[in-house]
Write a structure and sequence with these properties.
- By secondary structure, the protein is α/β, with parallel strands linked by helices.
- It folds into two domains: 77 residues, Methyltransferase, Methionine Synthase (B12-binding Domains), Chain A, domain 1 (Orthogonal Bundle), CATH 1.10.1240.10; 120 residues, Rossmann fold (3-Layer(aba) Sandwich), CATH 3.40.50.
- Helix content is 59%, strand content 12%.
- It has a five-stranded parallel β-sheet, with helices on both faces.
- Helix 1 runs parallel beside helix 3 and helix 5 packs across helix 9.
- The longest helix is centred in the first third of the chain and has 23 residues.
- It starts with a helix and ends in a 5-residue tail after the last helix.
- The model has no long low-confidence stretch (mean pLDDT 89).
Length: 210
């Protein structure tokens, strides 16, 4: 059943995907497994987008399907005894209005036990600084999908340094334009190109295994 669900999501069968996901859970399926299948399907959709086989409309529809399934799946995971791991302030940096990657990461982080404070999209450096002062997170997550966002990430890290907050937090960056070079350039502690990897790295940054 999960294999067919995977194919339906990749094929953009919105109604069929959502109904099948509900049926899977009603039959006693594993909510965590369901989200993993959705994540893997989103990964394939992303690959098709990069190859030019899918366009932005498909990418957005894929995100909508995932969000719809997430809405009734996530509470079932949260019902379990999820140990609180720490707090993350999360936002898409200034000059970038993409939220799909950020939203997907947020779901996986919350499902893993992190408290996530989402400060939105097109977030200027000073708003990140304010959020760190107010919420005192363990980690700051920054997302960008366009090249202009890379400079915004660097300016945000620099702004946190200027007010003496940089050494009190770990910083992870993510999105379509980040890699090891961007991590070095911005001064972040880690980078990830998918949500699951991002959550794993957040755990590592906090010295949590698994």
């Amino acid at each position: 059943m999960v294999e067919e669900l995977f194919n339906r999501i990749v094929d953009m069968d919105e109604e069929g995907s959502i109904n099948m996901a509900k049926e899977y859970l009603e039959r006693g399926g594993d909510a965590q497994k369901l989200l993993e299948v959705c994540r893997d399907a989103m990964g394939v959709i992303g690959e098709k987008f990069e190859k030019g086989e899918y366009f932005l409309s498909e990418l957005i529809l894929g995100g909508e399907i995932f969000k719809s399934i997430m809405e009734f799946t996530l509470p079932m995971i949260k019902k379990g005894d999820v140990k609180k791991l720490g707090k993350i302030v999360l936002g898409t940096v200034k000059e970038d209005v993409h939220n799909i990657g950020k939203d997907i990461f947020k779901v996986f982080a919350e499902a893993s036990g992190f408290e996530v404070v989402d400060i939105g999209i097109d977030v200027p450096e000073e708003k990140f600084v304010e959020a760190v002062k107010e919420h005192k997170p363990d980690i700051v997550g920054m997302s960008c999908l366009i090249t202009a966002g890379v400079s915004s990430m660097k300016r945000t890290v620099d702004a946190l340094k200027e007010v003496g907050l940089r050494d009190k937090i770990k910083i992870i960056i993510g999105g379509g334009r980040v890699d090891e070079g961007v991590k070095e350039y911005t001064g972040a502690d880690a980078w990830a190109d998918d949500a699951a990897k991002g959550v794993r790295l957040c755990k590592e940054l906090m010295g949590i295994e698994g």
